[in-house]
Amino acid sequence: MAELGLEDGTIWYETIGDGPPLVFVHGGWMNGGAWTPQVDHFADDYRVVTLDVRGHGNTGPTDPDRYSIELFTDDLEALLSHLEIEQPILCGLSLGSMIVQEFLSRHPTDATGAILGGAVRSMPPIELPTGLKSFWSPVPALTASLSLTGTTGTFQSMLYSIQATTGQRWLSVDPEVRADAIDDVGDIRSTEFRKIFQALYRYDPPELTDVRTPALVVHGEQEAPLVKRQGQRIATSVADGDRLVLSESGHLVNQDRPHAFNAATTDFLQDLSAV
């Protein structure tokens, strides 16, 4: 991996292959390795870029006391500038989909295409007014859980809560994928876990109605219904959006169904190149 030094931290990233730039942004409490099935598949034909977002993976903790989706997007912009990438194809999963949405909102025509896996606009997926979010903040309970059970226990409690609400194994239908994701969470410090959670919780999503970048939203069939609804809203908000639901998969749709996800991505990329 390589380093990008910033004023308030260092971002770790990796590039492989040559061709049109294809940039992958992972989900919350994961790392760039979450995209391994896609990196392996596309590196022969694309310049594939992955990064570890602040607080995650090799990047780990950075100086700011607060994180935000806006800050993560600043970092993405800095990385693209550093690599001299213009008109990237962006692919974001979950938290990464928020970062891609923020980038598209800032740059409605400056990406060639966008793929949003496990796409979500806000957390919780019921969009609450900012003032109400602050009034009902789950951060104190989260902090207590982190002090008692650590990052792994807190994350598992979140998963159980979502499963109890939806009746579905929301994160992944594959036990190995689920276990690997939980292991990744265990590598994150409690202070960073809380900062990442707050970034997700505080985010006020853009409407995307000015976005002219073609976008594909991909959800797993076992995705939480409210998240699916948000994905539909994203796909219909942009000028050129489409949505796909893959069977036998959950939130980590790119890992649950890697071949199907790669095939859908390939079709989308071929449509882009034909324009």
TrEMBL record:
The keyword Hydrolase applies. GO terms for cellular component: membrane. Pfam families: Abhydrolase_6. It comes from the Archaea. Residues 22-264 form the AB hydrolase-1 domain. Keywords: Hydrolase. GO terms for molecular function: hydrolase activity. This is Alpha/beta hydrolase. It comes from Natrinema halophilum. The lineage of its organism: Archaea, Methanobacteriati, Methanobacteriota, Stenosarchaea group, Halobacteria.
